[in-house]
Specification:
CATH architecture: Beta Barrel
Largest sheet: 16 strands, antiparallel, barrel
Strand order of the largest sheet: 1-3-4-5-6-7-8-11-12-15-16-17-18-19-20-21
Number of helices: 4
CATH superfamily: Porin
Strand content: over 45%
């Protein structure tokens, strides 16, 4: 009888374990992306192999556990890397540079998550960039990562925030709300800097082929070491963003605009003496055309405009994606930028030779998802 009881208990425990396993899941996923690049950097021509031109090369683990009553615990940890050389992407000190968060999600009440996360402003703008806010070849990323003397002290919308709390509402009649608060953070790469606390809120609507979104972000002051005689004071900066899209058949028309306004620098500070805190705007309009089930064409015109300095960079970029399967695609990109005044905009990872130069880029690449 004792053996029978032990067998029954063992079977019950196995069933319970199986039931628990059925209520939770963990998924390994990732992207490997590589491309060949031709660049005309103000008359200097170069050829190179790079990573992440269509989608950033990355790997991640995500999971969820059903807690009952429409509530689940969820997490996502995601690291970026360069597939051309195997190095970590952007910050070699951060294994999970892209995302690292955990929280609770409810079908009825939305989600509340904690960690390093995408900002509401990112989620609002993302659907209206034909190049999907890619960190290497999107014009929006080029505007964010531009090293421009007149905006060195003006904080940019980085897309992600560490030490953050994020609330996402459930979809109600096509409307979504986002709210984030991020605490101060210090990093050593790509440049040593300390950012202040940050507030970011956004709202979007999607329905009947229309997409519209608005976002506001305020980043408190911080500091950055940019190799000048003294650290640069990152000025408290307000960011206003608007996005609009409309789908007509196979064509998705897309538009976004962002205005970045820093607070005034303290009198006699390094920022004030060197004029490092100008406002600037970024405008992008374009379309994504789903020519066939396997072929997509992307087109974008854009301009980064620094206020009060007569610096601006208009440009155009086109792209083509061809899916070989659900997981594998080939792609091509071609872009042109014209820097005016002392502007120094180019694609991320490109060091502009001098101000006022023309930038021309052409790439072909491959993406595989797993």
């Amino acid at each position: 009888m004792r053996l029978i009881r032990q067998g029954i208990c063992g079977a019950a425990m196995a069933v319970a374990a199986g039931s628990a396993a059925a209520q939770s899941s963990v998924t390994l996923y990732g992207v490997v992306d590589v491309f060949m690049q031709y660049l005309d950097n103000g008359g200097n021509h170069s050829y190179s192999q790079r990573s992440g031109g269509n989608s950033g090369s990355m790997f991640g683990l995500k999971g969820a556990e059903d807690l009952g009553n429409g509530v689940k615990a969820a997490f996502d940890i995601e690291g970026g890397f360069n597939s051309n050389n195997g190095a970590l992407f952007a910050d070699t000190t951060a294994l999970f540079y892209r995302q690292a968060w955990v929280g609770l999600a409810s079908d009825k009440y939305g989600s509340l998550t904690f960690g390093r996360q995408y900002q509401p402003t990112f989620w609002i703008i993302y659907p209206t960039d034909p190049f999907r806010a890619d960190e290497v070849l999107s014009p929006l990323s080029a505007a964010v990562f531009t090293v421009d003397r007149n905006t060195l002290a003006t904080q940019a919308v980085s897309g992600r925030t560490s030490n953050s709390v994020l609330y996402k509402s459930p979809n109600v009649g096509g409307f979504n709300l986002y709210a984030m608060y991020g605490f101060s953070a210090t990093v050593t790469q790509p440049v040593p800097q300390t950012t202040g606390n940050m507030l970011d809120v956004g709202a979007s609507y999607s329905g009947y082929g229309l997409y519209a979104g608005l976002a506001y972000q305020y980043a408190h002051p911080g500091t950055a070491n940019l190799g000048l005689p003294a650290p640069v004071g990152l000025l408290g900066t307000e960011h206003y963003s608007a996005a609009l899209g409309y789908r007509i058949g196979i064509v998705n028309l897309q538009f976004n605009y962002a205005y970045h306004r820093p607070h005034d620098a303290a009198p006699n500070s390094l920022d004030a003496r060197l004029g490092l805190g100008h406002s600037y705007s970024m405008l992008e309009f374009g379309a994504t055309i789903q020519a066939t089930a396997a072929d997509a064409i992307e087109i974008a015109g854009f301009e980064r405009n620094v206020r009060g300095a007569h610096d601006n960079t208009p440009g155009v970029q086109i792209g083509y994606d061809h899916s070989l399967s659900k997981r594998t695609a080939l792609y091509a990109r071609a872009g042109y930028m014209k820097n005016n005044g002392t502007a120094t905009m180019s694609w991320p990872g490109v060091s502009v030779t001098s101000s006022g130069t023309t930038q021309v880029l052409a790439v072909v690449g491959m993406t595989h998802r797993f």
